[in-house]
Write the structure tokens for this entry.
Amino acid sequence: MEKPIIGVTMGDPAGIGPEIVAKSFNEQSVYDVCRPVVVGDAATMEWACQVCGLDLKVNVIDKPADGKYELGTIDVIDLKNVDRNELLVGEISAHAGAAAYAYIEKSVYLALDREIDAIATTPINKESFAAAKVPFIGHTEVLAGLTNTPDPLTMFEVHGMRVFFLTRHVSLSRACELVTKERLVDYIDRCTEALRRLGVNDGTMAVAGLNPHSGEHGLFGNEEVEQIEPAIKEAREKGFDVVGPVSADSVFHLALQGRYNSVLSLYHDQGHIATKTLDFERTIAITNSLPFLRTSVDHGTALDIAGKGIASALSMTEAILLAAKYAPNFINMPVK
């Protein structure tokens, strides 16, 4: 079987995206497991190589099948949408936001047409998106909109620990309101299906507790008693291998030790803090429920260090490697 083709978006051209992409394409480990291709701007990738002091040749191609895919060469599908004289590196701008959106859009179409086997995305800047009047706030919303996917699932993976999120970008008070029996049962179902798509068919999912010590049977809150425990009971009756609520101060440690194949975190920071404290740079986001696989770095555009050639590419490299790991499970999956 041929190595999967991984489309790598260049990200915001004013941020560190081009630099970390260039550095990742200088890693033999990447070429050992996949055929990586950049969807971006060739002139910007050449600039990034110079900034980072890398002796890499940019090879412009029209379609992924034309790539050389060999160490020392960066294959680029060139959208030619960055004016290097106009772009201000390290600054928020509509120019950068529009360019970054175009790379995601092109990658989605390539994935839907099965010209690439997965997408690994690089940071975008939400303010630059807004300046460009992009009708989406971020990556997940773009991917959902372009593929007509309602409420895509976000999963983090770090050192083999997988974490799903019941809620994402809402206030903490709103997140608590969304911890309902119906929503939990639905998410347990969807998360189990997402694991199967990744090839994870064995093991037990744990649902994190919401309150300290999972509420101590109502002493510290009633959400566990009224919503979470009934949801888990119903899910188990339906045949799902799930337990909980497991106190959030221990569930992630237990998952890391291998007791659980995944954790359903109940709100944004609960899971983010656990994974990023463990290993910030190796925490990789996977967007499930799409018609294709998408992985991503889980950091921002770092405008303060853009253009200096000092940004770490570890997270970008890990995102590409993880895309290559799971891509074979998606290659023959029907497009919605």
Notes: Residues 1-150+290-336 form a domain with the Isopropylmalate Dehydrogenase fold (CATH 3.40.718.10). DSSP finds twelve helices and twelve strands in the chain. The radius of gyration is 20 Å.
